[in-house]
Amino acid sequence: MNRKEDSSIKDEAFDQELIEKRIHHIDIENEMKKSFLDYSMSVIVSRALPDVRDGLKPVHRRILYTLHENGLTPDKAYRKCADTVGSVLGRYHPHGDASVYDAMVRLAQDFSMRYPLVDGHGNFGSVDGDPPAAYRYTESRMSKISLSLLTDIDKETVDFMPNYDDRLQEPVVLPCRYPNLLVNGSTGIAVGMATNIPPHNLGEVIDAVDLLIDNPDATLEDLMQFIKGPDFPTGGVIMGRSGIRAAYATGRARLTLRARSEIEEQPNGRQRIIVTEIPYMVNKARLIENIADLVKEKRIEQISDLRDESDRDGMRIVIELKRDANAQIVLNQLYSFSQLQDTVGVIMLALVNGVPKVMGLKEMLVHYVDFQGEIITRRTKYDLRKVKEREHILEGLKLVCDNTDEVISIIRKSKDQPDAKVNLIARFGVTELQASAIVAMRLGQLSGLERIKIEEELAEILKKVAEYEEILGDYSKVMAIVKNELKEIKAKFSDERRTEIVSVSGEVDIEDLIPVQDCVITLTHFGYIKRQPLDVYKAQRRGGRGVAGMTQREEDFVEELFICSTHDYIMFFTTKGRCFRLKSYEIAEGSRTSRGTNIVNLLQMDPDEKVSSMIKVSSYDDEHYLVMVTRKGIIKRTELTAYRNVRRMGLIAIGLDEDDELAWVRQTDGGSELIVATKNGMAIRFSEQDARPLSRTARGVKAITLDEGDEVVDMARVRPGATVLTVSESGLGRRSELDQYRIQSRGGKGIRNYYTDKNGPVAGVKMVNEDDDIIMISDDGVIIRIQAVEITVQSRYGGGVRVMRIGEGSRVVTLARAPREETEDDSEEKPENDEENDSQVVPESENQEESL
User: Fold this and answer.
1) Confidence check: pLDDT of 552 > 70
2) Phi and psi of 120, rounded to 5°?
3) Which of 148, 339, 349, 649 is deepest in the core (most CB within 10 A)?
4) Which of 137, 164, 475, 797 is catalytic?
């Protein structure tokens, strides 16, 4: 081999080594997942969904901001859409020109937008589905109402972010001085989700916002006194109110929307149907074509003629009928077979802090009110800074008027303006900004009249400073400004409702669609909550192993278990002493093995806050109380009506010490007796009247005196004829007669309830009857349901029998009382010699039945 060939081989080997270094081995599955997730998030956040604050998608926001930058306000001449589209593409939206123009066209269509945001000049399409003219032919500018979307944007009211090439700054959101998301609605299809928010009447929405500002505890029913329902730009008739309430309560619903029509009698005795409004987003030309096809196919046989008489004055579709036709029957056929009656799906989904969320009406309005409070606060801070800067300048100018001759002398003796500034600063101690203003003064401003003007302006400035500082110091004044400015917008742009809402015979409300049934609600240590039918948990014989209750993350376990009706209120009390409220059916139903929904998606809790107790409330009245006990043995009793109006952010339920937390809450009738039990086996029984009623935010009084290292594990209400069930963390349990727990005074150490040295710490205490079932859950997620009658009655000194077999390293963490459930085991013959009934701790049987 010669030297040349050897060199060639070495070069090839070197090139191959370089190639191998540049090759990156990637798992195609992981790469596809990551890429699709990135694409999905981009579509969701940056394209398809509106922001809850201004109700705009990025492309609409960029179009309006570009019109604002170009000065295309309603008082200026129209400009070619091609110019605006080019500006949007070049500055902020590096996508196709068709997407920008299509978005601009929709903003200008009065049959698409309830209050158009773009004032279009030329052919912008029609309700017949005609396409708009090319953007080189059409012209546009901002509409009058769109100015309110950008009011005060130059006063640092919103944040800005870099555009796609870091060359310019664009607004993250527009100030939006009216609730545009609800007023104009929005539609969009993202990846895995979609939004369809119907438009509403401006005046109605503003009235609802005013109510919410005055009364943050206003209910959905209160808000619906003002917002009757959607108000579509094409009018129409909404059939029934149940769909509207469902949409406003849950964020999802289906509305039935009909065309507005009337039946006319003709001189020749015939009838005809006149249609003057059609459902929202229905193509009129296609609708007429569809009706003609129905006649040709003889699905509707009583129509003799069909024509479109629409003109610039409005829509008019004429449907002529045959001589003997029944107009009402034909109209009902048209509603059934054509888009004269259409279904509008409502999905009130928008971005909240960049996260898509389905919201009800009140939550959307609350987000808007909070946003407007922030806008006014930021604007006021900006104005305050500017007037203080002007005050600073005027103080300097006033100094000149007081020392005119000396100032003139200093300036005359100076070499140039920079030298004059230095000399003025040295002589009078003015700032550089004041010195610049003094040097720039005209001689005419030194007259006496000009001095009076300076003093008057300074006095006005000081008034404004005081006014702005007063606003910033009182949030109610901020909200008053929001209300006043909304009322001005309402007075200027509000109009009459176009869509009529009619009641439908036999319609049902959203709650009527949800069956009343008993259910079990569980909440895990890591905050996953779900609702399940009660019959999911089949009863077993005592000592059974139970069934797996859920699929859960490692080290998660159920902390709370609650039995209620689907129509009950569920009140959530947190470790920080706050109270939240939901309807039971608002909690998503899950399967036996599902994890459920994280509670933070339902309640607005702090990161270090957990739900410590849940209770059901069927109705609020003056005869019931809430009794609360903390881990440190503090008890508080408050009237239930004090918690009637629970805000979205929650209510303060109890005042807590720094090292304490709210542990249990029970509803009482005012004359109940309570048993408070501790982990180390102590218990105290006393009357709830020993704890006088306190205000909602009060701290409470001592329920039991705890030994060092002890804490409260449960609280039970005494029921006549019931026994006291005590279950240990090791799975042992016993029932004891109530008379073994004498009534004591609140605040004592109590009596011995359980010997924990031998049998383990106490997991919980319940009052049970023989016809009750007991549901127990261990920290590894296993659930068992047994009959209370199978648990032996023993004295307070007994250790109990095996009620649940616990795996190694596991413990019982939750128990609850449930109504008796009949099972096949009830009919089986029990062994004559059941040693377990006589022993405190029993060996585990290998033949226990497991439930299905």
Assistant:
1) no
2) -95, 145
3) 349
4) 137
